[in-house]
Records
---
Amino acid sequence: MRHPIDRREFLKLAGLGGVVFASGLGAARGATLSPGEGADDDFYFVQMSDTHWGFEGAPNPDAKGTLRKAVAAVNALSEQPDFIVFTGDLTHTTDDPKERRRRLAQFKEIVAELKTKNVRFMPGEHDASLDSGEAYREFFGDTHYTFDHKGVHFIALDNVSDPRAMIGEAQMQWLAADLERQPPDANIVVLTHRPLFDLYPQWDWATRDGTRAIELLMPHRNVTVFYGHIHQEHHRMTGHIAHHAAKGLMFPLPVAGSQPNRTPLPWDPAHPYRGLGFRDVESALRQAQFHLTELPVLEGVTS
Amino acid sequence: MRANRRRFAIALGGLLAGAATFGLRAVAQPSEQVIKVVARRFTFTPGTLTLRKGVPVVLELTTADVLMGFNAPDFQVRADIVPGQVARVRLVPDKVGTFTFLCDIFCGSGHETMGGTIVVA
């Protein structure tokens, strides 16, 4: 399968084990900054995803400890982010509504330890698809919403509360109305759980009406999408819109189509937590870019 | 470290692969094979559909319990399977090989393993 990213463009960061690149948002794509140069409204946020609290199984023998390690790793960052987003599948699914609420409560208690208190949540299908998001809303409020931060308009889209993996007509109209209020050159970030494009429908890596959402976004020149669901880093362009999938924080999944089933990759005792991590997203508005850094679970944690 | 992060840019390439999936309600013609497929949490029976290239079939889909979805993305065929109703989809295999079908409506804790195989000879 052809990788959509030119790997030569990646920079391996010594000492971090992470990857940096910039998601160009506008005419200044490719611009660089000198050390110390930057606008006052630059900021960064952290994306965490697919924590699957409540999962138990061989793919992660530290299922009860990984989320806490990730929280410690974020807290250990030398500069705390402006905010943190969780892009869904906070909990692992259960058919028992009481157990679902218990897992959501435990998850909320653990992430309350984050130093950064500005935390944005959204559901994944594991949290919300069996009860249309009812339990999720009891703990975290609306499943779709917008907020603005230092010149960037963020849109959290819910493509999981409908078990058909749809955004749905009502939310689509809400999205259209919100976008109508944004100028064509607005800096827009969409946060969602599933890919909006057909990444690999054979493994349910798609949003059934995601194409329509992308069509609504297309008139805007500066749009970037951050999502989860596929438990691995992935980057794709649809026209001028960049889509970035984040690693998960419970178990990694295989590359699309690389094996018959989407079963989790096995835990490697020689490389514990391999394939898990979170993402630092840095906004450099003057360059109309986002710079991404992939960080491992144990980043900055000494014990 | 943060300043270093600002130095690098990448040009991304690629286009939307806009393969829409859709359901096709159908009534079998007299000569067309009909295959009955029963969905229940979290299996399809039969789990393997053996077809011939170019030979149309009609799948009659029912569910034994909750709302399910049938999706064969490689053939752009999908349908909701509503309890108490029969969903019919017509499928004309246009390629040889082994392909996946899956339930694409989240139906419970075993949903992610609910799928089957289409073998086209």
---
Amino acid sequence: MTETTTEEIVTQSSDTEPALEQTPDDRQRVDDDVPNVIRTRAMNVFYGDFRAVADVSLGFATNQISALIGPSGCGKSTVLRSLNRMNDLIIGARTEGEVHYHGENIYADGIDPVRVRRTIGMVFQKPNPFPKSIHENIAWGAKVNGFKGSKLEMEDLVEQALRSAALWDEVKDKLGESGYSLSGGQQQRLCIARAIATKPDVILMDEPCSALDPIATLRIEELMLELKREYSIIIVTHNMQQAARVSDKTAFFNVKLSEEGMRTGHMVEYSPTEKLFTSPRETETEDYITGRFG
Amino acid sequence: MSLEAPPRPDQGLFPTDQEYDSLLGRRNRKAQFFKVFCLLMLTIAVVALATLLYTIVNDSFGLVAVVNQNDPDDVVASLGHDPETTTLNDLSYDELVGLLEANVSSGVGRRLERDQRFYEDRLVFESDEVWDEICSSNEPPAGCTRGPRNTADVFSLVQERVIVPDVIASYPLAQSIVNPEAFEQEVAAGFEAGRFGDYTADQASIEWRAWFNTTFLLAPASATPEIAGIRTAILGSVWLVVITVIFAVPVGVGAAIYLVEFAKPSRFNDFVQTNINNLAGVPSIIYGMLGLAILVRVLEPFTSGAIFTTGPAPSDNGRTVLSAGITLGLLTLPVVIISSQEALKAVPDSLRQAGLALGATRWQTVRSQILPVAMPGVLTGTILAVARAVGETAPLILVGAASFITADPTGPFSKFTALPIQIFQWTSFPQEEFRNIAAAASIALLILLLVLNAFAVILRNRYSRRIP
């Protein structure tokens, strides 16, 4: 029912700076002119009565890497999981406000979360391959989503996904082996390959490198830069250098003690990465990125 | 709702948006179908359980037609009380003994007294000379050493010997509620047809009876269903639980700790493991055979208590609650081992490594870090296994549970009966009323199991430590 709008004709847009930095008060405003693949409007996430994050309004640009950084408990993972309705799986979790994917609210009535997750894939903190063969790990997602190709085309798809995840050369001779036979870094790349084999539009990554060594981390980062030509990537990371290395734009989240004494996360600043790390607008941001954070 | 993604060049092999719509519809319908299917399966399980409960409860309560040999009112009146204000329950101990004295033949009275005397200082049925004689004989009866009877005991004797209530017909609960008149008609028709022998219709009274009541729980077994109780059986079952736990828990948990934490992989250990798994599937009657052959026969000096005393053995053979408890312990052992192993294996390895990396020995790590985390699982598995064993009948029959016994078990070397044995026995009797008390005893058994399971839940919650 959604007709293609001009918004969906996508161009590389890192130079089309949004009007975010007009005044400090405007810092949470999202410019509607920027081609955003996902945009949240006044999003609040609750776990029961506890408000985990408050009033997040953010736009994530198409074919860019957007990073969410901040101290533990600031709600950045919560925000990420809200973007493909993975929070629905947590009992008691509730998302208020709107999350727009290509202009359509994914929390609207009648939107099937299965469909949302099929288009907005996810890679988790700990590598979580299925206890099945490498081939099956990748093929299953395509199969459940109605892959129409022949067996041969499936093999092509698996190869293509593994190549995209820069894993093909390492596993091409042992596709029948268990996903668990791989090293941690390889398992994580397998999970990325698994996610892209379903041809999603956006890939969410929740601290994808925190369980990996620096070499494996580097490979995943290279992979992300590779993948952003085809996919929009949103990544949560604890590692500020990582955010600085890979992302185009960075949102800094912080915790604030609410009036009821609850630790609620909120977004402090959202700027192009280079700007956020060199000349942050907020002192809170500066304290955090320079390590003066309490 | 479409949630369209911008077209991608390589999407040819994937469904188009329209195709995806119908595909998603089909997938969701399938998910819905299986959800309903699983719900249906749950319903079947619940209905089965409900039916089970219904049958038991249905037989445990309901209308009965009773004929009393002696009307309680007349009995009370014979002692000079007003039947309007006084009931049998209000009579004193002396009055109750007096009723027995007046109504029971002297032979029966002497037997009762030899079993347990009525007064500390005087005899009611026996003469002092005879009493001294039999008490100084080689095998003195229990009454020579036991303390005197109590009021509840004598009250049930009066019920049994003086009032002698006879339930001539009974009706299940559901029909008693829905159609009580039908029962009255049935009883009246029965009298007309002469089915109730010498009784006449005006002797019978129709009343509500809860077969499952406190008197039933507290009274010892009896050959008359109206006054039979399950105190002996409950105490027997409790003793069995205690001995089973004392035997199965240390042995089972110890074996599991060795297998999981200490044993190195070897042919022998694999062999042991396989055999434990197989033992869990051995039918319980075979454990009964084992108990009979080894515990009752070979280890008789131990299970009858003979080796613990220089005098006469507490029991004249090995068919004691100790034999039965150990047999049930052996029966539960494989399950205890397996569930404890599973609980121990579920503890993350990182905890073991953390303990060992601090320079603790393996046992210190197991004792202080692993076991506390595994404890809820160990306890749950153990208690569920024990609860299973409490309901076992076959091995107890083989080991020699007494089919009729009125003396409570007083120690591990007592003769005993147990709830399932009692139920089994009663259901095989021809009188219909035994079926009612068998159902009532089933309720007691279910409650006992419920208590054990609740205990498991409480312990699990208490010991639960969250692992992130």
